[in-house]
Amino acid sequence: MDGYTLQPPRAPDDIEEFVEKAVPILQDRGVYPREYEGRTIRDRYRLPYPD
User: Fold this and answer.
1) Range of the domain at 36
2) pTM for the whole thing?
3) pLDDT digits 0-9 by tens, 8-42
4) How many domains is the chain partitioned into structurally?
5) Is residue 18 part of a domain?
């Protein structure tokens, strides 16, 4: 089975610790982006803009 299971943070420090420790590891493994291509979510998913 592939994937990740994340538990909701129990305290504000938990999310900071995750970002500081886990995100760099995931980026080094190529499974979490270092930067995004578009400026907005709409751009990133190539969604059309409303008329």
Assistant:
1) 12-44
2) 0.57
3) 667 778 888 888 999 999 999 999 889 888 888 89
4) 1
5) yes
